[in-house]
């Protein structure tokens, strides 16, 4: 309803609002001498129900010399609303009340007073004497009441006849005006629906480009405030397993979370007052009532509750209807789709980023491994490295130091991914720098340790084994810095473990010098170096392959060539792990004396 | 995409925001920023002139709701003026005339602020 041209309800203040927002009704025409045909013309040329009823009332009051009267209109089956009252203090009078067994013909209030109809007292108190039903198409659409005549005389049969004629004359005008009012109301409700749809459309458009949960929630609150008119609200979203309050007006303390969690068992929008009556929702229900919340609406996606919207009293008054809750439901479900999409999108990006990072880590690691193994006179050498998906940080190396001496190394960095690969690069660089320098193995190991421990500040460590193989003396001098002891399988079936060395690298600057071990190869001896990815390869039930089993396997294959030994062990590992994803890098280096 | 613009004017302790174009879910954050800035600057006497506002959606109305309490708490107000019939209809449908002072002309809102300031 747009303001009348005079702009009558521009410039209202809040306190005036209730009365000022309605267009001011024109007063009815009252001269008691108004001839009937003129009266008929006046009322029938109007479509304004208020005007018509006021005119009927005033004309009747004028003709009958009555100072008090009113007109009520039927709003629902038994509910009547006062639409015009003259000479009656409306403040002391209910605006609407229930009237049952409405009289269909003019009757005297005094006569009905004994009928024990509960509503009749209202008229008695106001000293009303006559009740005139207003009929339209045979139905009672309203009621006019008249007070005492100022002349003191009672209503005669002639009077009631005249009154009935006046009311009857305006009957068709009232019917018309009622229909107009209904049409107006229907129009307005269509407008409201249209506005709701517009809101959904507006938000869905925006939600689709948003891809940002925070922004979606903000727009949702605007719609709750603007369209629904909720003065209070709480919005919570499920983040993995917990429900979190993401927006609230006014602010609420986080201790509400577990209570809200209980509400996730609802299947549809509910009024809090209904929930508070149910045993299992009593606690959250009562608390939310105290917080001024009226209804809770689940935000659902694929029939899962991903969040809740709670709304409190409406700014413009009135209660929430079922239709309102349905609308909030649509709004919420629309929002949750975008929020979930935003979350999935973020996760996808995060996953992609991690995969990219792992790819880099893998590239770094593979770049550190020797492309070709050196040819070592009188020996056979073979190696394998199978990186796991997360890139574990295994490393091995084999290079010539001189014509007689070869450096062989194997190591495993704690942690996974790029940080592990970078630290391994550090170790490799140190190793390659130190190899040509004439220095003892324990000293060089101490240097590598000092370098890495200052880089890692103790946060990471490396198990490391390296040695220098002299092809002339067929001896291997070595240092084992906390690595799985390599196994030396002798031709007589005995197994030696190469354990001499010291602390793992990277924990602390070298305090105690590393020790050097030495072994001498006989023809047919096989040295097997490996990382824990071999001994700890897991089957589907989480059982390790174990060092013992590796030893048994190696004894079985010790007579085979170096690369064949690796191949067979690899096969045994596959049999053990079957389809279980490889959780750590697998690295083996085998050296066999010919 | 239809645009939306906000102009600012200030005089005699009253701040005027002029809205232009389409105020919907997409442009609502701009109005939100404008209100937030005024609040930060402690400017609580606000007139929103809607002369060139072509369209307002519920999200746009929501922004008004989001700030009115804070403004009134600080003894200020947001008064609305110069609405087109179409825009007024949306305000009216959603019950806003109960909550806001709406004037035909900006000067009416201005004089209202002034009488309060004098008092």
Task: Describe the protein in words.
The complex is a heterodimer of chains A (594) and B (119). Chain A has helices spanning 17-20, 36-44, 49-64, 109-113, 120-125, 157-210, 213-228, 257-263, 272-277, 282-290, 322-368, 417-434, 441-456, 532-535, 547-557, 562-577; strands at residues 69-74, 79-86, 96-98, 107-108, 128-136, 139-147, 233-239, 242-249, 270-271, 293-301, 304-312, 379-386, 394-400, 405-413, 462-470, 475-481, 487-489, 495-497, 501-502, 517-520, 526-530, 586-593. Chain A is of the alpha+beta class and 594 residues long. Chain A folds into 3 domains: 17-185, Beta-Lactamase; 211-344, GAF domain (Beta-Lactamase, 2-Layer Sandwich); 369-593, PPM-type phosphatase domain (Phosphatase 2c, domain 1), CATH 3.60.40.10. In chain A, strand 7 and strand 8 (242-249) form a beta hairpin. In chain A, helix 12 packs antiparallel against helix 13 (441-456). Chain B has one domain: 2-Layer Sandwich (Transcription Regulator spoIIAA). Helix content of chain B is 43%, strand content 32%. In chain B, strand 2 (14-23), helix 1 and strand 3 (45-56) form a beta-alpha-beta unit. The radius of gyration of chain B is 13 Å and the shape is globular. The relative contact order of chain B is 0.17. Chains A and B meet through helix 6 and helix 7 of A and helix 1, helix 2, helix 3 and strand 5 of B.
């Amino acid at each position: 309803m747009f303001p009348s041209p005079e702009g009558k309800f521009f410039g209202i203040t809040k306190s005036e609002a209730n009365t000022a927002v309605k267009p001011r009704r024109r007063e009815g025409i009252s001269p008691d001498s108004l001839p009937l045909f003129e009266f008929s013309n006046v009322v029938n040329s109007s479509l304004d129900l208020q005007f018509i009823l006021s005119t009927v009332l005033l004309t009747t009051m004028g003709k009958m010399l009555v100072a008090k009267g009113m007109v009520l209109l039927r709003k629902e089956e038994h509910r009547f609303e006062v639409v015009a009252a003259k000479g009656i203090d409306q403040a002391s009078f209910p605006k609407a009340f229930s009237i049952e067994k409405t009289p269909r013909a003019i009757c005297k209030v005094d006569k009905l007073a004994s009928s024990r109809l509960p509503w009749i007292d209202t008229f008695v108190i106001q000293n009303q004497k006559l009740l005139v039903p207003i009929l339209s198409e045979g139905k009672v659409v309203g009621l006019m009441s008249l007070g005492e005549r100022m002349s003191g005389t009672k209503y005669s049969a002639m009077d009631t006849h005249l009154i009935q004629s006046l009311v009857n004359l305006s009957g068709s005008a009232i019917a018309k005006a009622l229909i107009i009012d209904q049409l107006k109301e229907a129009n307005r409700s269509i407008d409201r629906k249209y506005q709701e749809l517009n809101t959904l459309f507006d938000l869905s458009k925006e939600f689709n480009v948003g891809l940002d949960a925070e922004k979606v929630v903000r727009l949702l609150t605007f719609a709750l405030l603007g369209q629904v008119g909720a003065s209070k609200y709480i919005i919570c979203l499920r983040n993995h397993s917990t429900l979190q309050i993401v927006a609230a007006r006014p602010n609420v303390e986080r201790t509400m979370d577990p209570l809200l969690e209980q509400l996730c068992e609802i299947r549809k929008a509910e009024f809090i007052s209904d929930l508070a009556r149910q045993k299992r929702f009593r606690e959250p229900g009562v608390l939310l009532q105290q917080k001024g919340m009226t209804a809770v609406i689940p935000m659902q996606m694929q029939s899962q509750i991903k969040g809740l919207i709670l709304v409190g009293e409406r700014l413009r008054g009135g209660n929430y209807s079922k239709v309102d809750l349905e609308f909030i439901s649509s709004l919420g479900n629309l929002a949750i789709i975008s929020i979930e999409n935003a979350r999935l999108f973020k996760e996808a990006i995060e996953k992609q980023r991690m995969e990219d990072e792992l790819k880099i880590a893998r590239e770094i690691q593979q770049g550190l491994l020797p492309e070709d193994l050196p040819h070592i006179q009188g020996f056979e050498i073979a190696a394998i490295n199978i990186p796991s998906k997360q890139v574990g940080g295994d490393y091995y190396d084999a290079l010539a130091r001189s014509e007689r001496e070869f450096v062989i190394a194997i190591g495993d960095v704690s942690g996974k991914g790029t940080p592990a690969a970078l630290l391994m690069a550090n170790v490799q660089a140190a190793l390659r720098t130190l190899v040509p320098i004439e220095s003892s193995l324990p000293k060089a190991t101490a240097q590598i340790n000092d370098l890495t421990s200052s880089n890692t500040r103790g946060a990471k460590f490396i198990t490391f084994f390296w040695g220098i193989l002299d092809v002339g003396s067929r001896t291997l001098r070595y240092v084992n810095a906390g690595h799985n002891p390599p196994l030396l399988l002798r031709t007589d079936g005995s197994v030696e473990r190469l354990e001499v060395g010291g602390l793992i690298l990277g924990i602390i600057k070298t305090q105690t010098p590393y020790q050097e071990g030495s072994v001498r190869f006989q023809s047919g001896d096989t040295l097997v170096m490996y990382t824990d990815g071999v001994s700890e390869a897991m089957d589907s039930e989480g059982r390790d392959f174990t060092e013992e089993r590796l030893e048994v396997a190696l004894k079985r294959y010790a007579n085979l060539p170096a690369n064949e030994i690796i191949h067979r062990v690899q096969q045994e590992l596959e049999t053990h792990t079957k389809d279980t994803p490889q959780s750590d890098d697998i690295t083996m280096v085998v050296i066999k004396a010919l | 995409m239809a645009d939306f613009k906000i102009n600012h004017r200030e005089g005699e302790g009253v701040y005027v925001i002029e809205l232009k174009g389409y105020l919907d879910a997409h442009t609502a954050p701009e109005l939100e920023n404008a209100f937030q800035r005024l609040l930060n600057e402690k400017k609580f006497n606000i007139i929103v002139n809607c002369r060139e506002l072509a369209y307002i959606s519920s999200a746009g109305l929501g922004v008004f709701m989001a700030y009115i309490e804070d403004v009134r708490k600080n003894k200020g107000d947001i008064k609305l003026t110069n609405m087109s019939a179409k825009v007024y209809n949306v305000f009216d449908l959603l019950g806003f005339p109960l909550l806001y002072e709406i004037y035909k002309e900006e000067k009416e809102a201005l004089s209202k602020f002034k009488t309060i300031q004098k008092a």
